[in-house]
Amino acid sequence: MKQKIVVLTGAGMSADSGIKTFRDAGGLWEGHDVMEVASPQGFRSNPALVLDFYNQRRQQLKEVLPNEGHTSLVQLETYFDVNIITQNVDDLHERAGSSNVLHLHGELLKVRSTKYEHEIYEWQKDLFIGDTCSKGHQLRPHIVWFGEEVPLLEEAAAITSIANIIIIIGTSLQVYPAAGLMYYAAPETPIYFIDPKPTISKSPEWDLHIIPKSAAIGVPILVQDLLHRVL
Predict the structure, then answer these.
(1) Residue 137 is a catalytic residue
(2) pLDDT at 182
């Protein structure tokens, strides 16, 4: 039986592909206060602004490619049972070829009904006021905004709890509830943390290994090390 690797990825995973992160700019995301464009209140206050913001993000996504961090993770699937749990809303893991990706915070290339949250549609084009679901209700980005529940958190916790190895890439581990996922791991589980500016340090509580590099550099190094152990 293959060992299970659970990979938790955040904004730093996609930063090397050219996707900007709002946390790098003092709470501003492409010039907007994040609460204006990433909260239910912001959507109620100015839905046109929010839809335009995500239309721009959707267009930007079409202009970028997976980086070496994304493509390196795919190599692990030959010898390990790999689950990726990502806070990112882009599709770069899927485009790189990863098979099992769970998007905690939603997906940029999907939209859903404002009334029936399980009515979800694939969506590649711009979204405007007047675009409605099959029952006539306005569509919104399929994104988990600040203040909203994370519906896939329970599934993510269950996956993490049976991991043999955990890899954390490009996340500050400061955004809850996603940041709490590592606490579901068994105490002896080795954890590899890849980030150019690590926010955690070694402690007796964890079998923690820190790789202070960006995703595009650090992930290939770790992947080759893990593959070397099984070959």
Answers:
(1) no
(2) 83
